[in-house]
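[agent] plan:
  1. take the single chain provided in the ticket
  2. run structure prediction with default settings
  3. attach structure tokens to the ticket
  4. add a short note for the reviewer (M.T.)
[agent] executing step 1
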Amino acid sequence: MRRALPYVIAAGLVLFGWKKYHERVTLLSSGAAADDPARLDVERDGRNASRYQCDGRVYCSQMTSCEEATWFLQHCPGTKMDGEGDGVPCERQWCGHH
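[agent] step 2 finished; step 3 output follows
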């Protein structure tokens, strides 16, 4: 079992890296509009220039705007902001249609 542990860890890292690479390629090839707040901005040096980053926040009470909640819903796993499952997060707090 001890001999297999480094291989399991390496496989996990490779899978994680491939997933991140695939997400970036998909977003870049989708041709997202320049005014879309959820798009992936890439500076000349290739760093992610997005205003937001997945940092563990998952609830509407942790958001500061509809734009931020929408970005988190679209990019971060495990969010709990779309109870209706309609793709609109935080309808009571931020993204409600009054």
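[agent] step 4 note for reviewer: The radius of gyration is 17 Å.
[agent] ticket updated
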